[in-house]
Hints:
Elements: E1 2-7, H1 11-24, E2 29-35, H2 46-50, H3 60-63, E3 70-73, E4 76-80, E5 85-88, E6 92-95, E7 98-101, E8 105-107, H4 114-117, E9 118-119, H5 124-136, E10 140-145, H6 149-161, E11 165-171, H7 181-193, E12 197-200, E13 204-207, E14 211-214, E15 219-221, E16 224-227, E17 231-233, H8 235-239, E18 250-251, E19 264-266, E20 271-272, E21 274-275, E22 278-279, H9 284-302, E23 316-320, E24 326-331, E25 337-343, H10 344-356, H11 358-366, H12 372-379
Parallel strand pairs: 1-2, 1-7, 2-3, 7-19, 9-16, 10-11, 10-16, 11-12, 18-20
Antiparallel strand pairs: 4-5, 5-6, 8-17, 13-14, 14-15, 21-22, 23-24, 24-25
Bound molecules: flavin-adenine dinucleotide (FAD).
Flavin-adenine dinucleotide binds near residues 75 and 270.
Amino acid sequence: MTNILILGAGYTGIAAAIRVATRTRRHGGKVTLVSAAPRFTERLRLHQTAAGERLRDHAIADIIAGTGIDLVLGRVTALDPARHEVVVNGGRVIGYDKLIYALGTVTDLSTPGVAEHAYAYDDHDQAVRLARRLGELDRGTVVVAGGGLTGVESATELAEAHPNLRVVLLSRGRPGSMMGEQARAYVDKAMARLGIQVRRGADVVKVLPDAVELSDGELIDSDATLWTAGTRGLPLAAEAGLTVDEQERIVVDSALRSVSHPDVYAVGDAAAVRQPYGVMHGTCQGGIPTGLHAADALADGLLGRRVKAFRFGYVHQPLSLGRKDAVIQFTHPDDTPRRWYLTGRWAIAYKETVSSSPLPTYRLLKRGLVPVGLFRLTAGLK
Length: 382
Ligand SMILES: Cc1cc2nc3c(=O)[nH]c(=O)nc-3n(C[C@H](O)[C@H](O)[C@H](O)COP(=O)(O)OP(=O)(O)OC[C@H]3O[C@@H](n4cnc5c(N)ncnc54)[C@H](O)[C@@H]3O)c2cc1C
C-alpha cells in the first residue's frame, strides 16, 4: 500500500486528490486529504462574498464522496519531509509515502499595518468580515489596494453592491495592465461608470486603522481597506527545508516534484512552476492542470510508467466588472494578450462558466474523465 497525502482542499488539492485516488485505487493507493475547513472555499468568488452575496455551501465531504479518499479536518502546522510526516493542529502526526502540497498562498503582510488593519482574501471568513463591515457603513470610503485582476474585480463588485460608498482603487501601474489596450479601455470605462476613483502610481507604505498612507506622505481616508497587492507561500515549506523561491513557493521540477524533496509534489499557487515563458503565476486556470499532472506523475511513477513533463499555456484572463458586466481577454500561451476580447453579456456568461466549472470538473474526474478544455490546456502543448 502507498500512503498518498494531499495538503489543502482548495481548487487544486481536490483535483489532485480525486485524480490520484481514481488512478491508484486498484493499485494499493490510500489517499488522505487534509482540509482546514469542512466547507469548500470558492476563492474565485470571494469578491462576491465580500460584496455581501450569499453563495451556496459545498461540503468537501460531498465533493469527494465515493472516491475512497479519507478526509482529515485540521490545519497543517508542520512538515517533516525527512521523516515523511505532517503535523495537523499542532498534535496529530500523519505519515506519508508521497505528498502533494496544495496549500495555496496567503496575503503578503510585509507592508506595515496590513496584518492589523486590512481585509484580505486569505479565507472565506475574512471576506465575510469585510461584507459585514461594509454593511454597517451608510457612507464612507473603501480603499482597494492593488490594481491586478483581483483588485479590479473587487473594486467593481463593491462599487456596484454599495453605491452609497466611495470606492478608491490604488494601483502602482494601470489597473489590469496585463490585458490588451482595448480590454483595458473597457475596464477603465466600467470603473468610471461605477464611480470608482482610480489612483495610478500609488505606492502604499502603511495601512492605518482609518486611512492608507502613500509613499509621498499623502493619507487617504478609509473606512475599510481591502489588500489585494501581493501573496506569498506559507512559511511551512521553507521551515521544513524545502527549496522555495523569493515568494516562498515550492520550486518544482518538470514532473512538479520539489527539487529538494522528490517525494513532495507541489501544485497550484503554492508551487513555482517554470515554463518556457517563465514561472507561472497563480491562477485556477493553471492550478488545476498542475494538480492533475502531479496526480498522474505520482500514479505513473508508482505503476512504473514514463512520467511526462508538465506543459501549460494560458488561454484567457476572465474579469468580472460587477454582476452586470465583464471582459474576457484571450491570451497567447505565455499570457500575453491576443487581439480578441469579449465584453458585455457574452463575457458575463463566459466568466460565470469559468467560475462554476471546478465542481462539474470534479464530478467528471470521479468518473475517471478529464474535461476536454483542461486536457487541451496541457496536452495541446506537449
Ligand atoms: C477574488 C479572486 C478572484 C479570482 N479569479 C480568478 C479567475 O477568474 N481565474 C483564475 O484562474 N484564477 C482566479 N483567481 C486565483 C485563484 O483563485 C487561485 O489561483 C486558486 O484558488 C489557486 O488554487 P489552490 O488550490 O492553489 O489554492 P486555494 O484555492 O487557495 O486552496 C488552498 C487551500 O489550502 C487551505 N489551507 C491553507 N493553509 C492551510 C493549512 N495550514 N492547513 C490546511 N489547509 C490549509 C486553504 O484553506 C485552501 O482551502 C482568483 C482569486 C481571487 C482571490
